[in-house]
Design a protein that fits this description.
The protein has 238 residues and is mainly α. It has one domain (18-237). Helix content is 66%, strand content 0%. The relative contact order is 0.16.
Length: 238
């Protein structure tokens, strides 16, 4: 999990076109960002590199900075909350994470109810299909992350403090992240149009490949916070 306080975070959040955000190649270049950026028209000049505080300032306003600072200051008072039952161990958490990843990956790879045909001209069915996968991922991953938080809060004081900070960061950043992810289908629509024009007869398998690859990249992005919690549990118990 990443967080920061300092120069840049006090500025109010500004609206930045998602095309520009994707071109900042030195900031959070996840597989999803790289894939979507590859479908954008090339710019004549490289985008200027900016200070990380300036980039973070587009996400955190003064209220967010105050909330994050307060959460950090309160960490020493947080202790392990022991409840009934045995705390989760690292191998069990790793296994649950892998099961979740496998289940959602298989869902992505499942044949669509309405196969893609060369004669298709409307993107709307594919848009709805993508939204359905996003909802499925969000529900399953949020439930697992909540389960992890509860388990880790019973394991050690250090992990209980991490869980508290994770919850604060999620509250601050979650809505903005979901808003950005809601824009992913618009990039797929652009790709849909590009492939139909370039390969009038052979575009369906190419589009289906890109569709699934985009979902897999988004899945890994969505799993990052839960993966971080599992890694923290592993380090704490080693």
């Amino acid at each position: 999990m990443r967080g920061a306080l300092g120069g840049g975070v006090h500025r109010p959040a500004r609206s930045v076109p998602k095309e520009k955000c994707l071109r900042y190649s030195h900031f959070n270049r996840s597989p999803l960002v790289r894939q979507l950026a590859a479908w954008l028209p090339a710019e004549p000049e490289a985008a200027p590199r900016r200070d990380i505080g300036e980039r973070l300032g587009e996400w955190l306003n003064v209220a967010d900075a105050i909330a994050l600072h307060a959460a950090h200051q309160s960490l020493p008072a947080i202790k392990t909350r022991r409840r009934g039952g045995k705390p989760m161990d690292a191998p069990a958490a790793q296994a649950e994470l892998q099961r979740l990843r496998t289940t959602l990956t298989h869902s992505i790879a499942a044949p669509p109810i309405h196969p893609v045909h060369a004669a298709d001209t409307e993107f709307s069915p594919h848009h709805q299909r993508y939204l359905d996968h996003q909802r499925r991922m969000e529900m399953a991953i949020d439930a697992f992350r909540g389960h992890l938080r509860q388990a880790l809060s019973q394991t050690s004081t250090r992990l209980a403090q991490l869980v508290a900070l994770d919850a604060v960061v999620d509250q601050m950043m979650g809505g903005r992240e979901q808003k950005l992810l809601a824009g992913v289908p618009s990039f797929l629509k652009t790709r849909f149009q590009q492939l139909r024009k370039a390969e009038p007869e052979g575009w369906p398998p190419l589009f289906e490949h890109d569709f699934q690859q985009t979902l897999r990249a988004e899945l890994e992005l969505r799993l990052q916070p839960a993966t971080g919690l599992v890694e923290a549990l592993t380090q704490d118990t080693n």
